[in-house]
Amino acid sequence: MLSLPIAMLAEYLQLLMVFQVILLSTDRWAQKDVNPALFSRELMRNSSSFLKDEEVNGDPQILLMKAHAATSSIGSATVIIAVLEKTGTLKIASVGDCGLKVIRKGQVMFSIPPQEHYFDCPYQISSEAAGQTYQDALVCSVNLMDGDMIVSGSDGLFDNIFDQEIISIISESSGVDEAAKALAELARKHSVDVTFDSPYSMEARSRGFDVPWWKKVLGAKLIGGKMDDITVVVAQVKTVAVPEDEGGDIEEQKGNEQSIAISVSSAEQNEE
Amino acid sequence: MLSLPIAMLAEYLQLLMVFQVILLSTDRWAQKDVNPALFSRELMRNSSSFLKDEEVNGDPQILLMKAHAATSSIGSATVIIAVLEKTGTLKIASVGDCGLKVIRKGQVMFSIPPQEHYFDCPYQISSEAAGQTYQDALVCSVNLMDGDMIVSGSDGLFDNIFDQEIISIISESSGVDEAAKALAELARKHSVDVTFDSPYSMEARSRGFDVPWWKKVLGAKLIGGKMDDITVVVAQVKTVAVPEDEGGDIEEQKGNEQSIAISVSSAEQNEE
């Protein structure tokens, strides 16, 4: 088992949320005798410290730019930063193949596709000039509603678990803790199941990867889960009452007594 | 062939874009002796006339609310409204199973999933109280870049054509006209191909629909395209220079000489 192969942060700051799911490109950096955890940890610390920065002003792309510029460690990482505004808008900046889905009334109503150079080679924020920057981020936002569930995770989650499974687990779980743990556990189980036709193996086949022709003739096909580190963050959106002095600090919100808050839980499964 | 079964609008207003893809629930309304085109046409006319409304202020959800409230025809429709801001943010409100994808550097980097009550029964804006309203819309936005291609369409497009096919056609086409026509034509071809394993048939099987068991035993499965009306809108994003007096009308943009514009083309294929 690797030492701290995934680092993850879920932090409240008033009613803002930042969560980052950083998957380390472990192999490449380990070969260069670089501890691959250092870059992502520092990037996260910096993201956290810039969250209330005046220039950042709740913009996840500017936050990523500043955090990246302030990071001096060697390494690279895929990253999602999501900032929830009081009005219920979730602002997202994503570089790489982490994912984020919003589940509303039993269906995935918003989803971020992975960004990659080619199959299985994701965009990454890096200490090297060849890597991607905040300018390569997918920047988008979605208006949330009371009851929405946010499921974010590393590719180890979404490569091993189908949307319908995520929806089932979310609907059967009593809360975000239980949901995050159940999602991570099911993804881990699928990841080591060589007979499971996973989202990853289906995607691989659709890109032209498969078993050799002589196995195909015998009816075989490329299947199986994808062994990988798995990080899951589950958040639930709730409408909350806000005292007037807090609700009125943005001019447009004066007199608005409703605001959006979330409860967050996370779970991890490390590749063994 | 139905008379005007799909209505579609692509309109420039300065640097704003509105496009709406409205698919009519033809069968149900035809049975009630209601011309199903009337509702969507009026909804579109109203959307167009409210585009510069002060209260709307570029917000596609408010635009939908006002257009819907002003529509007196009987009927229902699925709808996407997308408004492109000068800064490059595409603001979207969607009710139902129309789709919108953004293609950047040869990959789908943003996509809107369909909203439906159950398989093949989409959310719809309606003249009846039982229908959905602007409050049920998926409201989101995405920051566009120079060169991005936007592909929007009715479910007749996305039920019959895979992302990889869309990407191929976009990359091979000389412009938005050619791309829109090629996408509509390929979707039409697939829609009448009973041997094509379409996105629609794959989705149907994943929801538990399939051929009877005795056909399954013989190796058969539910495949085929989905015969439907097909509307495609393709838009390409370009950075353009803006004269100072135009670029400076929003305070934050003062001194910004770059702005985002689009070229749009559309194509239709009616179910025969």
Automatic annotation (TrEMBL), chains A, B:
The chemistry this enzyme catalyses reads: O-phospho-L-seryl-[protein] + H2O = L-seryl-[protein] + phosphate; O-phospho-L-threonyl-[protein] + H2O = L-threonyl-[protein] + phosphate
- Where are the compositionally biased (Polar residues) regions? 256-272
Supply the EC number(s): 3.1.3.16
Spell out the PROSITE patterns in the cross-references: PPM_2
Report the leader peptide range.
1-30
Q: Give cofactor(s), names only.
A: Mn(2+); Mg(2+)
SUPFAM superfamilies of this UniProt entry?
PP2C-like
Residues annotated as region Disordered? 244-272
What residues does the PPM-type phosphatase domain cover?
1-237
A single GO molecular-function term is:
metal ion binding
Please give the GO cellular component terms listed in this UniProt entry: chloroplast
Q: What family does this belong to? A: Belongs to the PP2C family.
Query: Can you name this protein?
Result: Protein phosphatase
What is the originating organism of this protein?
Panicum virgatum
